[in-house]
Write a structure and sequence with these properties.
Radius of gyration: 34 Å
Largest sheet: 6 strands, antiparallel
Strand content: 15-25%
Number of strands: 28
Distance between the termini: 103 Å
Helix content: 40-55%
Length: about 850
């Protein structure tokens, strides 16, 4: 052993090797040092402009090297191929699983922003030869004009692959879904070959590749545009080339491995930590002589890892997933939670709670114990094969620690479940160790004297075992159809619905105004951010609308809603105020509302430019007041007053109308100033009286403002129900709120605001003792817009056990009213019933009144 290390050190001391090592170490050192010594702008520039030429050079060199070694590769691969039966079985199952994924899993985004970043970077690479994210831009005359570009915090290898396909397949990157699916069988076959090459255990290789591909998380990701499938593909490719280089041990082979590993490092920033495992296990071969192998390998690996190194350097210390998002420093917590998420039992409906198979995790634990045992036994026998496997896996998965410690690696956040793909191939390999060895023992025990019969027996046992695992995954077919992976991820659903709506429209050149415009840029569609549109002048906005012939659309999406739609460890930002101001200032025509969750809609509107008026100036309404008309206090009048403040020329097209209890009080052209009026007390009805102020464009019929105000007239003893103590109350969730919604907000039903009533959650029952004092009960009711996903509610009014009113099913929409006779009734009950689903059944009881 001493002689071995002495020889390594002697060969390491070779001048060429030392120079190569210095170059290899200097490159990452200087790149990482740059931002810390005042050269962050230099790193930023290089990060934008250097990756593409390096990728192209890397590709050309790799092709040339492989071509020169192609004959050697054919000979080598023939030497490692196992018997035909297991190879054919691998091919058959790779085809079956790929067909299953293609037919049972919808091709769609599952990590929207990340996947769109790769697409946007690819567009920018293709059109502008820059490797930054084109955050906002216009496609014009066969070019992409980026008006906002940022350095991409994602590594750029996947974007480069997209770039390579764009000249042939176009800039509408939907074709990427097919490319990702194609990688599934290729990754399986490469993993199979790599494990066969290293272990000479075909059954182990077969089951490891099979178990990897059968994990729902893996299948879902190979039907998305994520980088993780490329990670699995390149990890298997690198392991295969590593063994080839290890066996042939020439400069060319090691240079090709360096190129493969360097591109592998472009999949995720954490992947760079995988390289230590390859490097340490390669050292005995690289330094077995004083040659160019080591310096060429290290210098090549370092040079072509520069794109990933620049990204890491530029974003070092970047709190994108830390700080206020609490994403960092949760290694053990995330490890425990992730185990819990990956081993969750089925739901009561027999569905997968998460896209993980519980048995797989327990097989991994059993395999890990088995591997450890084999390693210990091997040390005693001076057989270090399994201890080397264990050491390689531990070094390889330093990256797993980095992910769980430094990224929001909590699998209870659905979008983070893709990180499991970094671990699943290794877990499948470890889990397959005892399975493969048990199957081998079983085959041996069944073998007889007939060699042909023995081969058939081996094939049948292997096939039967494989079918059990495959059938177990395939019997969750409905879960794959339902997209159980990320089916609760708001942003991916939002993008899916927007693209679905877009697919229904005639093909036209369009532009979108959106919170995440790079999503559209990635598909080759012009898009800018709300803020950029707001900063543009009115003539510039009009020119934009004219340029796209009216096909400019505003989308209010996830970012415009509240904190209920994100997890504190996820990377999310909310710009609700920006959206509210945008909608206030811009002329928008609603086109489509799509319910995403109980918390928000995607709202698509045609954009017509900036409003020619200030919406806040349209009408300012005072509360109605009851005053004495004269010294005679019995002669009272309800006075109302409002101000018309908008002075723009467009206001000359408006009329205002005042309604009192739905009867027109006044109607006139809109003229700036103060308007007041009065309503005789004899016109007041007992209970709530409504004065509604409406401003409308007389030419288009568009309502510019619609504000209801209420005055409660006690009349002959009318009483708001809110002033009557309830004798009992129960509800399914939360507690009863007086004069606010269930979540404590101002009531909002049908886009209008109300101030008095009750907020409850169906199913509920509220009982009042009214002691036979009243003749009539009136109320409004509706579902509050603070929670949007209700599938409908039923409301009943019951007096002394008798149903007086039944609403039937009602959904989100305008306020509805009910009026019933409660003469001589002692008790009054308001009951709400959830229907199929109780989620989001936030019911508002508006202006309830008892009339004598």
């Amino acid at each position: 052993m001493k002689a071995f290390f002495t020889g390594l050190l002697k060969n390491l001391a070779h001048p060429g090797t030392i120079i190569g090592l210095i170059v290899a170490l200097a490159i990452p050192f200087l790149i990482y040092l740059g931002p810390n010594v005042g050269h962050k702008d230099t790193i930023k520039y290089l990060d934008l402009h250097l990756p593409l030429p390096l990728f192209l050079t890397q590709l050309v060199v790799a092709i040339v090297l492989f071509y020169s070694l192609s004959k050697d590769f054919r000979e080598w691969i023939k030497g490692i191929l196992p018997e035909k039966s297991i190879s054919i079985l691998m091919l058959v199952f790779a085809a079956i699983i790929t067909i299953f994924a293609a037919t049972q899993i919808e091709a769609r985004h599952r990590v929207q922003s990340d996947e769109s970043v790769f697409m946007s970077v690819a567009q920018n690479m293709y059109y502008n030869h820059e490797s930054g994210t084109c955050n906002q831009g216009f496609f014009e005359n066969g070019k992409l004009k980026c008006v906002a570009t940022s350095n991409s915090f994602k590594t750029k290898g996947l974007a480069f692959l997209y770039l390579l396909g764009m000249p042939l397949l176009g800039n509408d990157l939907h074709w990427i879904f097919h490319m990702e699916l194609l990688m599934l069988p290729l990754a399986m076959l490469l993993m199979f070959l790599a494990i066969v090459a290293w272990t000479r255990q075909p059954l182990l290789a077969f089951f490891a590749a099979l178990l990897t591909a059968l994990q729902p998380t893996v299948l879902f990701q190979f039907r998305a545009m994520s980088v993780e499938p490329l990670y699995i593909f390149l990890s298997a490719l690198s392991l295969l080339i590593f063994k080839w280089a290890y066996d042939r041990n020439t400069v060319k082979h090691w240079a090709l491995l360096a190129l493969s590993l360097a591109f592998f490092a472009q999949t995720r920033q954490e992947t760079a930590f995988c390289l230590f495992a390859f490097i340490l296990f390669a050292l005995p071969k690289l330094l077995d002589s004083k040659s160019a192998k080591a310096p060429v390998f290290f210098a090549t690996l370092s040079l072509f890892s520069v794109p990933a190194l620049l990204t890491i350097s530029y974003f070092q210390g970047f709190g994108f997933q830390g700080g206020e998002f609490e994403a960092h420093g949760h290694f053990f917590e995330d490890l425990a939670r992730n185990w819990e998420e990956m081993t969750k039992p089925l739901t009561k409906n027999g569905e997968l709670e998460n896209p993980f198979l519980t048995y797989f995790n327990y097989l991994f634990v059993a395999g890990a114990l088995y591997l450890l045992l084999r390693a210990i036994v091997g040390i005693k026998k001076k057989d270090y094969f399994y201890i080397e496997i264990l050491a390689f896996l531990l070094l390889y998965h330093i990256q797993t620690y980095m992910i769980l410690e430094n990224v929001s690696g909590d699998f209870s956040i659905q979008i983070n479940q893709r990180y499991s793909l970094v671990m699943l191939p290794s877990m499948a390999f470890v889990a397959s160790l005892p399975i493969a060895h048990l199957v081998e023992k079983l085959i041996e025990s069944m073998n007889g004297k007939d060699a042909k019969q023995n081969a058939i027996t081996a094939l049948l046992v292997t096939l039967g075992t494989a079918l059990i695992f495959t059938g177990w995954t395939f019997h969750y077919k409905e879960d794959f159809n339902k997209n159980i992976m990320y089916n609760r991820n708001h942003l991916t659903i939002e993008e899916h619905e927007i693209l679905g709506w877009l697919a229904e429209q005639p093909r036209k050149e369009r532009m979108f105004i959106y919170g995440r415009p790079w999503h559209f840029i990635g598909y080759g569609i012009s898009s800018i951010h709300y803020d950029r549109a707001r900063q543009m002048s009115t003539p510039a906005l009009k020119k934009l609308v004219d340029k796209y012939k009216g096909e400019v659309y505003y989308i209010r999406g996830l970012d415009c809603w509240d904190s209920h739609t994100y997890h504190k460890k996820a990377v999310e930002h909310r710009i609700a105020t920006t959206c509210d101001v945008f909608e206030r200032d811009m002329d928008l025509e609603g086109v489509k509302n799509i319910l995403i969750t109980n918390n928000y809609w995607v709202q698509i509107a045609k954009f017509n430019g900036r409003k020619e008026f200030n919406p806040q100036n349209i009408i300012e309404v005072s509360e109605p007041e009851l005053k004495s008309f004269s010294d005679d206090s019995t002669k009272q009048t309800l006075f109302y007053r409002f101000n018309l403040n908008e002075k723009s020329t467009v206001a000359s097209l408006w009329d205002y109308t005042i309604l009192f209890n739905n009867d027109t009080l006044a109607s006139a052209p809109y003229v700036t100033g103060t308007v007041s009026g009065s309503i005789a007390s004899d016109r007041l009805l007992p209970g709530y009286n409504q004065i509604e102020y409406i401003v409308k464009n007389r030419e288009t019929g568009k309502v510019m403002a619609d504000i209801p105000k209420f005055y409660f007239h006690k009349g002959t003893g009318a009483v708001p129900l809110t002033e009557v103590p309830y004798t009992s109350h129960k509800q399914a969730w939360g507690k009863l709120h007086k004069n606010s919604s269930l979540e404590g907000n101002t009531f909002k039903v049908g886009g209008k605001f109300y101030s008095e009533g009750f907020g409850t959650h169906a199913s509920s029952e509220t009982v009042f003792n009214i002691e036979g004092k009243y003749k009539t009960f009136k109320m409004g009711y509706g579902l509050d817009e603070e929670s949007l996903c209700s599938d409908g509610v039923q409301l009943q009014i019951i007096a002394d056990g008798k149903v007086l009113f039944d609403s039937g099913r009602f959904n989100l929409g305008n306020l509805k009213t009910a009026e019933v006779s409660v003469e001589k009734a002692q008790t009054l009950a308001i009951i709400t019933n959830s229907l199929e689903d109780k989620d989001c059944d936030h019911v508002d009881i508006i202006n309830p009144a008892l009339i004598p």
